[in-house]
Design brief:
6-stranded antiparallel beta sheet, globular, mainly beta, 464 residues, 9-stranded antiparallel beta sheet
């Protein structure tokens, strides 16, 4: 992977350090690793309450516009609007999606942000271009976490397609996932690419990780195994990639799919009581690079389990969490976690109504305090929902982007380049996505018209 001297000057050429949540290496043995956040969240005597109170419109510190609804005491700064001219001179692509805090240099942290631009098109100009005929990719954002300032952004990979979600690694990179298996301009898509927090990517697909409708990844820092979700309706699998060399994914490895022990082709799209557990094993995907038969079909024919639209994934304190957008009794979604030391899968939460519960959870993250934050993808209403391991759910944030022509003009004045891309309109149903934490900061995107927020406030008043 390449480094850009010009961009490294921003952080005074300090050493690059991967971002690893301090909770990630708390283990205390196999049982301790699995139980730490569970015990803390389920204990009625916990020092934390669940929610932060009702949400209400809050003005953006940059534009003055009430773009989000948040609880009292929280505030935020917008940045990276679609069309904004970045440090490398290119306009910010649209369709913001998955995102992660990847690396740091001193007080400067680097986020990598996906752009889920679909179909054939023209690639954003970049020295890290995979296919000139595809318009997706990633942009990196630099943020001063001490002083709360956005510093810069730039294109880190382009010429990919339908970059939906992804995941951070313990070695300071982001895995960006293509949610398509199409071919554009004679080049295949449906791959995972690796992007550094600082510098630009080597635009080479990691083909051993498979070609399919990828969603998100979560990497176990102990083994270096990468767990991968798939968004393919009710024929979605949960995968594991075991690299031959820790931290070198391009060097090859083995792709596998989760199977429930003693239950061939288990249907995990159905409704189960919260807390249901399954002992699992893995079957090998013999031809990960082909799409006929699909990776899913290869695994399912060996007895692997099926899920409904697997989306977000996150590693925390020895557990791999992931979401199903449309699984369960009302097709409202599920949250699972997998314990890699015990080889055990658990249903943490199932949405059983369409009002107070999270509906169609997509991207997810775990806060520094151990709370689960879910991004809804339901249409018409777009919320950030908090979830405790005890099953308590609450609304933390809501998309409030109803822009008038005058509001759009304010954005144009603050962010040059947005004049032709940000228009007035009702965007309140556009999904929240890309949620990720760093200490006292929560970063999140709204997909359309495309904007990123840095949010802070009284986190210790609740579980997030």
């Amino acid at each position: 992977m390449n480094n850009s001297p010009e961009l490294l000057e921003i952080t005074n050429d300090l050493p690059v350090e991967p971002i690893v949540n301090r909770r990630d290496f708390i283990k205390g043995g196999a049982a301790g690793a699995a139980a730490i956040s569970l015990a803390a969240m389920a204990n009625p005597a916990s020092a934390f309450t669940s929610d932060y109170g009702p949400v209400a419109p809050v003005a953006d510190e940059v534009t003055g516009l009430p773009l989000l609804q948040l609880p009292e005491g929280f505030k935020y700064w917008s940045y990276g609007w679609t069309g904004m001219i970045m440090k490398d001179g290119t306009p910010t692509p649209g369709v913001h999606d998955g995102m992660g805090v990847v690396a740091a240099q001193g007080n400067t942290i680097a986020l990598v942000r996906n752009h889920e631009v679909r179909g054939a098109g023209t690639a954003v100009r970049s020295p890290a271009m995979y296919n000139p005929g595809a318009g997706g990719g990633c942009s990196n954002l630099l943020f001063d976490a001490l002083n709360g300032r956005w510093l810069a952004s730039y294109m880190s990979i382009s010429g990919t397609s339908t970059n939906c979600a992804g995941g951070i690694t313990p070695w300071g990179t982001w895995l960006t996932c293509e949610e398509t298996t199409s071919t554009y301009n004679g080049m295949t898509h449906g791959w995972i690419f690796e992007v550094p927090g600082f510098g630009i990517a080597k635009p080479e697909p990691i083909k051993a990780m498979g070609r399919r409708a990828h969603e998100a990844t979560a990497t176990d820092p102990v083994t270096g195994y990468v767990y991968i979700t798939e968004d393919a309706g009710t024929s979605s699998g949960f995968y594991r990639y075991r690299p031959d060399i820790y931290g070198n994914l391009l060097a090859g490895g083995v792709l596998e799919m989760l199977k429930v022990k003693n239950a061939d082709q288990a249907n995990l799209t159905a409704s189960y009581p919260n807390g249901t557990t399954w002992d699992v094993e893995w079957v090998t995907i013999d031809q990960p690079e082909v799409i006929n038969p699909r990776n899913f079909t290869q695994g399912y024919n060996k007895g692997a389990a099926r899920f409904a639209r697997l989306e977000g994934a996150w590693y925390d304190t020895g557990l791999v969490y992931f979401t199903s957008t449309s699984g369960g009794s009302v097709s409202g979604g599920q949250v699972f976690h997998f314990d890699p030391r015990r080889e055990k899968l658990t249903l943490v939460f199932e949405s059983r109504n369409n009002t107070s519960h999270p509906v169609m959870p997509d991207n997810m993250t775990i806060s520094p305090r151990g709370g689960i934050l879910l991004c809804e993808d339901r249409g018409g209403i777009s919320r950030l929902m908090g979830l405790s391991q005890a099953g308590d759910v609450f609304e933390f944030g809501r998309n409030n982007m109803m822009l008038s022509a005058a509001d759009a003009a304010v954005v144009h004045s603050k962010f040059p380049g947005t004049e032709s891309r940000i228009n007035g309109g009702n965007y309140v149903g556009s999904e929240t996505c890309g949620a990720c934490f760093h200490d006292r900061w929560l970063f999140v995107n709204i997909q359309n018209p495309g904007v990123t927020f840095a949010i802070t406030g009284p986190w210790n008043d609740g579980i997030l």
